[in-house]
Write a structure and sequence with these properties.
The chain is 48% helix and 13% strand. It has 301 residues and is of the alpha+beta class. The strands form two sheets. Strands 1-5-4-3-2 form a five-stranded antiparallel sheet. The chain has a two-stranded antiparallel sheet with strand order 6-7. A hairpin with a 3-residue loop joins strand 3 and strand 4 (120-126). Helix 9 packs antiparallel against helix 10 (218-233). The two termini are 35 Å apart.
Length: 301
């Protein structure tokens, strides 16, 4: 009889148990060697298969911490993402905890966004809020007030397809970790864009003014202004799009062209809250794309 064993590893904590929960693991040659050596030591002591390649990779979380320096920036990005789009074939998964009351769960879900399929899960949440709630240790003197965490959790079927596409043996766990790390920037950006239309967020009146000054047809401008207004009123962009499509009897193709008009002009139809302390804020997808194009190392596994 075969008994399956599942291990859940935090690579940084495995290498150094004193490391903070705040950081992320970069799967470069040196770090992978340290991970492999420490893994072997622990598995040998436990009497379990001791090589990384003795274990199959069934899930890998690709992640990035966006440290904004201000709580209100992270919160505003989080609020805008909650008004974003839900990709087709995905389901919204709420945070659940049997120990928490309905009021506590509602509060937590304001800081937590999760869309999932059988192979991929997109997660964005307030990392500082999570660490505070769970009593996790972090050196607050060495990090900013606002930390937004974006994760792409890929499951076994995704990993196998990825391995096949890149010519990697699915049982070569170390090589898979390295390859996933190397493509994490590309993958995270691709999936975050599905829930977060790229462009600048503006306060409602500023958004209206930005659209008014665009060099587009009168009809396109009318559609864009209506969608901006519906996005202000509706809880999600999907509902706003449906309302605008209904108002003007737009086809799916017309809706796609409308969304492209926003993207081409670097404008997000999702408005900032009126209480936000600035008139504009780049969307999360724009922040990640801009930093990536500047050659910064922003995405780690």
């Amino acid at each position: 009889m075969y008994a399956g064993i599942t291990l859940i590893l935090n690579p940084r904590r495995l290498i150094d148990s004193e490391s903070s929960y705040l950081g992320t693991f970069v799967a470069d040659e040196k770090s992978l060697m340290e991970l492999s050596d420490q893994f072997t030591t622990i598995m040998r002591e436990a009497g379990l298969p001791e090589s990384l390649d003795d274990w199959q990779l069934s899930r890998c979380d690709l992640c990035v911490n966006v440290q904004t320096g201000r709580n209100r920036v992270a919160r505003e990005l989080n609020a805008a993402l909650h008004k974003g789009r839900m990709p087709k074939k995905y389901k919204r998964a709420l945070y659940t905890d049997q120990k928490s009351s309905a009021k506590e769960l509602k509060k937590k879900n304001r800081h937590y966004l999760r869309y999932k399929t059988d192979s991929v899960t997109i997660v964005v949440y307030d990392k500082k809020f999570q660490m505070t709630e769970e009593g996790l240790h972090v050196d607050y003197d060495h990090c900013s007030n606002g930390i937004l965490r974006a994760e792409l959790q890929v499951e076994r079927s995704f990993i196998r397809s990825f391995a096949k596409k890149h010519g990697i043996d699915k049982d070569d766990t170390a090589e898979l970790l390295k390859a996933l790390s190397g493509h994490s920037e590309e993958l995270l950006l691709r999936y975050i864009r599905q829930i977060d239309p790229p462009g600048m967020h503006y306060k409602p009146e500023v958004l209206k003014a930005e659209i008014e000054r665009l060099d587009v047809t009168a009809v396109t401008k009318e559609y864009m202004l209506d969608l901006a207004e519906q996005a202000r009123r509706c809880r999600t962009l999907d509902k706003a799009i449906a309302k605008t499509a209904q108002n003007f009897d737009l086809s799916q193709k017309s809706v796609r062209i409308l969304m492209e008009s926003f993207e081409k002009n670097n404008i997000s139809p999702i408005p900032l809250r009126q209480s936000y302390f600035r008139d504009s804020l780049p969307s999360l997808s724009v922040i990640l794309k801009t930093l990536a194009e500047d050659g910064c190392t922003i995405l780690e596994v």
